[in-house]
Design a protein that fits this description.
six-stranded mixed sheet; Nuclear Transport Factor 2, Chain: A; alpha+beta; about 375 residues; single chain; about 30% strand
C-alpha cells in the first residue's frame, strides 16, 4: 500500500473512531474527547448562524455543549464516509496537496431545550449534516460542516421559506446500494474515473452563459453525465429531485434565474475543500466562495445585484459511466442573509404569531 493510501486509511480511522466515541461517551466526557481529536487552534466553520469558531475551547463552549444541552441523547449515523488527498488539479483545485475526510448523514436526538432560537419540541429530531475535515498530522485541523437547520425548524412546526419545488419532508435517503461507508481501501482507478466524470460534468455546467442562454440549459449537455433517473438530494427550501428533468425544472432553472454567472471560478476568494474520488464516490465543497451576482429573484426574495458567496457541498455516486445520486447541502440561511433577509427574523415572527394564535405563513420580508 502506498504512503498516500496508508495516510488516507489512517485519517479515516481517526475520524470514524472519533464519531463512534462521540455516540457513546457521556456529555461530561465530550470535551476531553474533542481535545484529543482536534488541533488546539482548530478553524471550525458551521452553517449560519453558527459560522466560524476558532480554537478547541471555544468549539466546546460555543457549539458542542449548547448542542448537547438541546439534544442530550444525540447520536450520529453517517451514510457516506470517505477520504483522500486533494492534489489541487480539479476545476476548483488549490496549490497544495491536502488530506481530507468527509461524510454526511444524520444527527438524531430528543429536542429537549431550544437550539438557535428554535423552540424545543420534546420529540425526536433529525439534523441532516454534511462535513469536511482537513487533517494534519493525524488530527483535525479545520472543519466545515453544514446542518439543515431549516429542516429542524420544519420539524418544530415552522417554515421560513416558501414550499420547496422539489420533494421535502422525512429523511434524506442513504445511497440506494447502502455502500457509502468507505472504511476499507478502494480501487484508485475507480476513484479517478468517478472524479473525472464529476469534473467533466462541472465543465459542462460552466458552458452556460446567462446573456446567451437565458432559460435554455442545452449548452450544458448534462445528459452526457447524469442518468435520466438520477436522484438529487438538495437542502430544505429546494428539496429532492428524482429525474434529470425534475433536477432541471426544480433546481437548475430557478437557480440560474437567481444566480446565473458561470465565469467567476478564478476569483480565488473562499475555501475550496476535498475534491476527491474514492471508489464509485466523489466529493467536494466550497465555503464562502464567490460564485455569481444575484441577477434574479430567488425563493420569493427580490434580486439585489450583489456579488454572492456560497457554502455548497457535494457527494456524488457513479454507476457505470453516469452519475446516479447526488447529496448537496447548501447554506440557504447564509444565502438569504446576503440577500438582506434574516430567516431567523421570520422564525421569531412565526413564533410570536403562534403564541397569539394567529395564522402565519412566511411572515414579513
Amino acid at each position: 500500500m502506498s504512503d498516500e493510501k496508508m495516510k488516507n486509511q489512517k485519517n479515516k480511522a481517526v475520524v470514524w473512531d472519533f464519531w463512534q466515541r462521540l455516540n457513546h461517551v457521556g456529555t461530561d466526557n465530550v470535551p476531553d474527547l474533542i481535545r484529543s481529536a482536534v488541533h488546539d487552534d482548530i478553524n471550525w466553520n458551521g452553517s449560519a448562524p453558527i459560522d466560524q469558531i476558532i480554537g478547541t475551547e471555544a468549539l466546546i463552549s460555543d457549539f458542542w455543549l449548547p448542542l448537547l444541552r438541546s439534544f442530550p441523547d444525540l447520536k450520529r449515523k453517517a451514510y457516506i464516509f470517505m477520504g483522500g488527498v486533494d492534489k489541487g488539479d480539479t476545476v476548483f483545485g488549490t496549490d497544495d496537496e491536502e488530506e481530507w475526510v468527509s461524510g454526511c448523514g444524520y444527527l438524531t436526538g430528543t429536542f429537549a431545550e431550544d437550539w438557535l432560537g428554535i423552540p424545543a419540541t420534546g420529540k425526536k429530531t433529525n439534523i441532516h449534516f454534511g462535513q469536511f475535515y482537513l487533517m494534519r498530522d493525524g488530527k483535525i485541523a479545520e472543519s466545515y460542516v453544514m446542518y439543515d437547520i431549516l429542516a429542524v425548524m420544519r420539524q418544530a412546526g415552522f417554515q421560513v421559506l416558501p414550499p420547496a419545488p422539489g420533494a421535502e419532508g422525512g429523511k434524506v435517503p442513504a445511497p440506494a446500494a447502502r455502500d457509502g461507508i468507505l472504511l476499507t481501501d478502494q480501487d484508485p482507478l475507480e476513484g479517478r474515473k468517478t472524479l473525472q466524470l464529476v469534473e467533466a460534468m462541472g465543465s459542462g455546467l460552466a458552458r452556460y452563459r446567462r446573456p446567451r442562454d437565458g432559460g435554455n440549459m442545452r449548452n450544458m449537455e448534462q445528459w452526457h453525465y447524469w442518468h435520466q433517473d438520477m436522484k438529487w438530494y438538495g437542502p430544505s427550501g429546494i428539496g429532492a429531485c428524482f429525474t434529470l428533468e425534475e433536477f432541471e425544472d426544480f433546481h437548475q432553472r430557478p437557480w440560474l434565474h437567481g444566480f446565473g454567472d458561470r465565469n467567476l471560478e478564478d476569483s480565488g476568494d473562499g475555501q475550496v475543500m476535498g475534491f476527491i474520488g474514492e471508489g464509485k464516490y466523489a466529493c467536494g465543497g466550497i465555503w464562502d466562495y464567490e460564485f455569481s451576482h444575484n441577477h434574479g429573484d430567488y425563493a420569493g426574495i427580490p434580486a439585489t445585484g450583489k456579488l454572492m458567496t456560497i457554502r455548497d457541498f457535494d457527494w456524488w455516486k457513479r454507476e457505470g459511466e453516469l452519475l446516479i445520486e447526488n447529496w448537496i447541502p447548501i447554506d440557504l440561511i447564509d444565502l438569504c442573509r446576503q440577500m438582506g433577509i434574516d430567516l431567523f427574523d421570520r422564525l421569531r415572527y412565526q413564533i410570536e404569531m403562534q403564541k397569539r394564535g394567529t395564522p402565519w405563513f412566511v411572515g414579513p420580508s
